Amino acid sequence: MDKKRDDDRRGGIVLTEEQKRRRRARSLAIALVLGGLVLLFYIITIVRLGPNVLTRPL
Fold first, then answer.
1. What are the backbone angles phi and psi of residue 56, rounded to the nearest 5°?
2. CB distance 15 to 23 below 8 Å
3. Domain range summary for the chain, segments of one domain joined by +
4. What single-letter DSSP state applies at residue 56?
5. What is the C-alpha separation between 9 and 49, in angstroms, rounded?
6. pLDDT score for 11
7. Enclosing H/E stretch for 6
8. Separation of first and last alpha carbons in the chain
9. Whole-angstrom Cα distance, residue 28 to residue 21?
10. What DSSP string runs through 13-46?
11. Tens digit of pLDDT per residue, the chain (58 long)?
């Protein structure tokens, strides 16, 4: 059965191709910002630990 007709019958929202493209671009931007924050926190943690992380007793 056709997806568009199926959504129309159920009262679902049908997005245009432009809306789908913008949603994907927005999701990609959010993912990149989130990945950047994770990387930033990782780097800050390593810098704060400093060289002492390598001189711990075993």
1. -85, 150
2. yes
3. 19-47
4. -
5. 59
6. 75
7. helix 3-10
8. 65
9. 11
10. ----HHHHHHHHHHHHHHHHHHHHHHHHHHHHHH
11. 455 565 556 778 999 999 999 999 999 999 999 999 999 999 999 888 887 777 777 6
Q: For 11, how many CA atoms within 13 A lie in the half-sphere containing its CB? A: 0
Q: d(Cα 58, Cα 54) in Å, to the nearest integer?
A: 10
Find the largest Cα–Cα distance for the chain.
Answer: 68
Residues 6+ apart with CB under 8 A from 46: 53
For 39, residues 6+ apart whose C-beta sits below 8 A from its C-beta are: none
pTM for the full predicted model: 0.64
> Token digits for 41?
């926190």
